[in-house]
Amino acid sequence: MIGPHSSPNMRVIGILVVPFVLMFGVYVIAHGHYGPGGGFAGGVIVAVAVIIVRMIAPRNLSERFFPPGLPLWLMVGGMGLFVGIGVLAVAWGGDVLDYASLPLPGDDSRRRYLSILLVEFGVGAAVSGSMVFIFDLLASLERDS
Amino acid sequence: MIWEFDLLLFALLIASAVVAIRVRQLVATVAVLSIYSLLAALLFANMGAVDVAFVEAVLGSALSGVLMLIAVLVTDNVQTKRSRKAEWVAIPAVLAMVGLMLWASADLPDRGIPNSPAAEGVATEYVENSLADTDTPNVVTSILADYRSFDTLGESTVVFTAALAVALVLRQGLVRRRRPDPGPNPGPDPDTDRNHNSDHDSDRAAP
Amino acid sequence: MIVDIIAGVLIVAGVGFLGIGVLGVLRFPDYYSRTHAVAKAETLGMLLVFGGLLIHLRLQAGTAQLVLIAVFAFLVNPTATHALARVALRRGLAPWKRGDPT
User: Fold this and answer.
1) Over the stretch C60-78, which tens digit does the pLDDT of each residue have?
2) Does A51 reside within a domain?
């Protein structure tokens, strides 16, 4: 199922829709402060955009758009960002995941606000990486035809 | 919260669960399970848990359906006999569990009651201080990512570990499929194999 | 007042088209005609409902999102049903002809 879709309608509409899906995913991750959403939902939407590209675009294009090695790095990087923020808070003299002690600009609440944003992006990266990783492996199990 | 709407959603939810079990084809089961997740998301939204409903709609009814569909397509479709003996054990066990749950649920506080244990104590603290503490109007986000960020860290670790475990299992299958060893384990049934290939050929024919 | 009436008429018409789509899924004889019912009736019904909601809400912060949702539903819904019907045809599901058992 990885590769160009046989129907031109699917290819055109899919490529047309993908950038908006990606943008919506990032919007959902970043907008969790003000509305429903957050890292989990936004990460899944980003993964959906990548999966659409995988299913409709030629293999070399979709691998340039999202290299096959990237999901694992996203997973590790997202988890590393989350854990790193927690550990850095200890390094600057607070408790684990005590955002107020991080060296970010602003007063305590603004520092928490910014760290929540970073943590949401970490969760989003980890979730989208995991989903694309599983999709790539499942699709590579497809019998070669 | 409209209780008639709730009742309708619950009835549809149970009906779709039963249909998902009774339907004979795996592809149809996946479709019905997606409908089940969508109904669950509507129920969550009706209860006011918009964040949970969003995740359920996106993950449960969209992406997991896609992943399960691909899993159905790449695996062999082998029929197994239903075991009557297992039913004799399973049905009473399930009924006993359902009865136990219903009996226990009688003690739970009603939904939306202001003085239930879940709405008192530390919860009121979070709701009152969230905006001043974190500048975040959405209380759910500030609880998930700040007050209870340790739980969220655990959740992300669960997703991470689950993805790694799935990857290890799938890679095992990939290695076995690439190098079919002529050992004591016979490979996939040649009959089903041929069916699969012809299916895919007809699917991929150039336009 | 008149605006509300127009909005109500649009929404009721949209729900009517959605109902016709459901009726088509239940009554049409085979897979292709059913996807046809879903693609056409539901796309039009959804657009009418969204148009009615737009008129009902006037100009607000949320209306731009409503327009975007309508545009993407208009693009994606027919494409998805097109893909489904195409896969069925490729896999050799024969269309229904007059006289076949339903």
Assistant:
1) 777 888 888 899 989 999 9
2) yes
Q: What subunits touch chain B, counting only 3 or more CB pairs under 8 A? A: A, C
Q: Find the domain containing A82 and state its range.
A: 8-140
Domain that holds residue C9: 2-90
Q: Are C47 and C70 in contact (CB under 8 A)?
A: yes
Residue A9 in contact with partner chain C when CB distance is under 8 A: yes
Quote the CA–CA distance of C36 and C42 in Å, as a whole number. Answer: 10
Instruction: Write the pLDDT tens digit of every residue in A49-105.
Output: 999 999 999 888 899 999 999 999 999 999 999 999 999 989 888 888 888 888 888
Q: Looking at CA atoms only, how far is residue C14 from chain B in angstroms?
A: 21
CB contact under 8 A, A113 and B135: yes
For residue C46, is it within any domain? yes
Q: What is the pLDDT of residues B136-153, one digit of tens each?
A: 888 888 888 888 889 999
Banded model confidence at residue B58, pLDDT cuts 50, 70, 90: very high
Residue A134 lies in a domain: yes
Taking contacts as CB-CB distances below 8 angstroms, the residues of chain A near C86 are 6-7
A126: in domain: yes
Q: Which of these, A7, A40, A43, lies nearest to A25 by C-alpha position?
A: A43
Could you report the predicted ipTM of this complex, rounded to two decimals? 0.87
Number of domains, chain C: 1
Classify residue C97: in a domain, yes or no: no
Looking at the domain assignment, is residue C101 inside a domain?
no
Shortest CB distance from A13 goes to which of C68, C76, C90? C76
State how far the alpha carbon of B147 is from the alpha carbons of A81, A124, B134, B161, B201, in Å. Answer: 18, 19, 10, 24, 54
Across the interface, of A10, A14, A17, the residue whose CB is closest to C72 is A17
Residues of B in contact with A33 (CB under 8 A): 135-138, 141-142
Cα B99 to Cα A103, B9, B96, B102: the distances in Å are 54, 22, 5, 5
C25: burial class by Cβ within 10 Å (0-12, 13-18, 19+)? middle
**CA A88 to centroid of chain Cα atoms:** 22
Chain C contact for A35 (CB, 8 A cutoff): no
